Amino acid sequence: MQDSPGWLPRLAPHGGPRFLQIADALQAAVMDGSLKPGDRLPPQRHLAAQLDVDLTTITRAYDEARRRNLLEGRGARGTYVAASKVELNPVLDLSMNTPPPPDGVDFDDLLKQGLSQVLMRADNELLMTYHLAGGSDSDRKAGAHWLEPMFGRLDTRQVLVCPGAQAALAALILALTEPGDVILAEPMSYPGLRAAAAQFGRHLIAVEADRHGMLPEMLEQACRRHKPVLVYLNPTLQNPTTITMPKRRREELAGVARRCQVRIIEDDPYWLLADAPPPPIATFAPQQAYYISTLSKCLTPGLRVAFVLIRDPHERERFLAALRSFALMAAPLTAALATQWILDGSAGRLMEGVRNEARLRHRMARDILAGRYSGDGDGLHVWIELPAYWHSSQLARAADSEGIAVTPAEAFATGGGSVNAIRISLGSIRDRGRLQAGLQRLSHLLARRPEAFTAAVV
């Protein structure tokens, strides 16, 4: 190869980890043809000298490029650009609401450092045994710190640690309701609520909403008519509609809950990703509301850690008893890692990287989807109302036939009429280029009318 390969990147001081900048440059060169299968790359020491970085950076860059199937080693002969691998029916997944890879953060390094600190400071035997439900004192302290932006200083005894938000939601339903009880929700709501209500024999009834969320007057009517025990709300960057309730609406709903003596489950996974969100509903009705905040949407789902704020000690005990009936505890190792990250500041850096990457992807979606994009540029998903010639389930099937997974409105419906829309998630495709390709393919599909489906006969 040439002494100064044309694909060599100019490393930016604030462009993220250097090894990722080099791996990205390699990938771009392969995609644009500057590097072709079979091309030999410079020896690592040679490249390190050219870029004025240490040898470890180049080793990590090459390892990352191998992980992306860009390079292959041939022993003493060196490292070469790999032949393209043929993907059969590659699916561009726009259906799963997971955080994108954080911008400017080396997640692998963060994970290794965090686990190293946990193993160095903790008793390894304690990390591999049973723990009482609700979390250790350190875990609850971390939970109170995590919730501080929403509520200020909290009594750590009021914060419980759970193995994910779905487990917390299920335990609250079990602790607070009986079979046959009514739970109220918005017409479009988190599918996990519907699954839990059906599994436990609770009745889910939809309450009318507008562009600011559930209507207070309709909630009051539903409370008088159905005598519900719980109201489920997801007030910030709502899943799936992306609506963020304004402060006044939150205050009004809290007032209805107090007057009607109905409790609120406030499931708020996206609050920390939003730009200046209003205070949680639980600040306006502290005795009526149970607040859930998961790390799955702001950091990574693999931690399986969520925090629940319950102020009444007797209700905390009821909640823990319900939780123990199906999930004894959060996994001690991942709970300890979450605690380490929160208390040493790593969680804040990781979340900032997720937030920055999510906003960049929202800008991409807004540009590609043009007038069909709806949202505030925050969070992990976009709600797309469809043209009249497409039905949401029909569009989802057509997208699937073109290798794109999206979620139709029916997956979120709790009753009270249907909405012709789909939700697309922006974080589950790790590579921005593949995300861009998926959004462009979806945009073209939305722009054309559906074709008659003809089944193949063989």
Main features:
458 residues; Aspartate Aminotransferase, domain 1; Aspartate Aminotransferase, domain 2; 3-stranded antiparallel sheet; 15 helices; disordered C terminus; transferase; transaminase activity; DNA-binding transcription factor activity; aminotransferase
Number of domains: 3
Structural class: alpha/beta
CATH class of the largest domain: Alpha Beta
Shape: globular
What percentage of the residues does DSSP assign to strands (E)? 5-15%
Mean residue pLDDT? 92
Topology-level CATH name of the largest domain:
Aspartate Aminotransferase, domain 2
Radius of gyration: 25 Å
Give a concise summary.
The protein is of the alpha/beta class. 42% of the residues lie in helices and 12% in strands. It has helices spanning 18-32, 44-51, 55-67, 107-121, 124-127, 137-151, 165-176, 191-200, 216-226, 247-260, 313-324, 332-344, 346-369, 392-401, 432-447; strands at 71-73, 79-81, 92-93, 159-162, 182-185, 203-206, 209-210, 213-214, 230-233, 263-267, 289-294, 306-309, 381-385, 404-405, 407-408, 421-425.
